[in-house]
Write a structure and sequence with these properties.
With 317 residues, this protein is an all-alpha fold. It has a single domain, classed as Mitochondrial carrier fold, CATH 1.50.40. It is built from twelve helices and no strands. It is found in: Membrane.
Length: 317
Amino acid sequence: MSASAPIAGTASAPQKLEKKPVKFSNLLLGAGLNMFEVTTLGQPLEVTKTTMAANRADGMAGAIARIWSRGGVLGFYQGLIPWAWIEASTKGAVLLFVASEAEFYAKSFGAPDFVAGITGGMTGGLAQAYATMGFCTCMKTVEITKHKVAASGQKPPGTLQTFMGIYRAEGIRGINKGVNAVAVRQVTNWGSRFGLSRVAENGIRKITGKGDTEKLGVWEKILASAVGGGLSAWNQPIEVIRVEMQSKTVDPNRPKKLTVSSAAKYIYSNNGMKGLYRGVTPRIALGVWQTVCMVALGDVAKDAVEKLTGDKVTAKH
């Protein structure tokens, strides 16, 4: 009998659960990829999505014409500096810290990897919403929807002036208006995107005949993540509600103090179910572009960060 063979009747020692450290290189990688994504196609798609959600009578062509009238190509980059940059640069850090902690504790309570991963993603999304995304999405929406001031012949206030005006009038609550809708969107986004991407990956493995331990190719990863990102747009009504709660568009028929439920009723009464899904097309496109950046460019970025910091990058993409 081999000396290394286990002795009958004895149980193998359980694998020790270890907490993976959150490295600087991981944070740098996430921030860099997010900054690239939002500065290229990310913000134009975000502006188009938000414009359609705020002006629900417009179709895609109408939204693009409306954005172009606000300053040509630059109209598609409203809210990029500083709000989208702040959101993008802090997104990875907040998500990684919180998601890593939540996933570890979920596993420590006996949750399988799949459930622990979803738990980490949802918890990270929740923390991100309340820590950074609330005021960033609010200010981006204000920037995008304040064009009516310019249309009336008045000079629209600058970015800092707008921020301070809201703070003086409504305080922190005004700056974080719509944050609860942002939180619901982020939690459902990360949960469904993670789960649906894994389902798509399993389908690709069956079609290609790859085993569970074999790595998927870059294009296979992109396809799986794009399917997950696209199908996770089922929660677009939450995004439309978020935009309505943060919008500075004046409507005397709109409730003065909007909640998630009152905003949903207002949108449905004016625009029906179709109105709740306004902007879903650019949102799907945004999800695909984010996937391409994080997956296709991820390997290249990992090599660059490792050379720069001398630190082995362990972040998954």
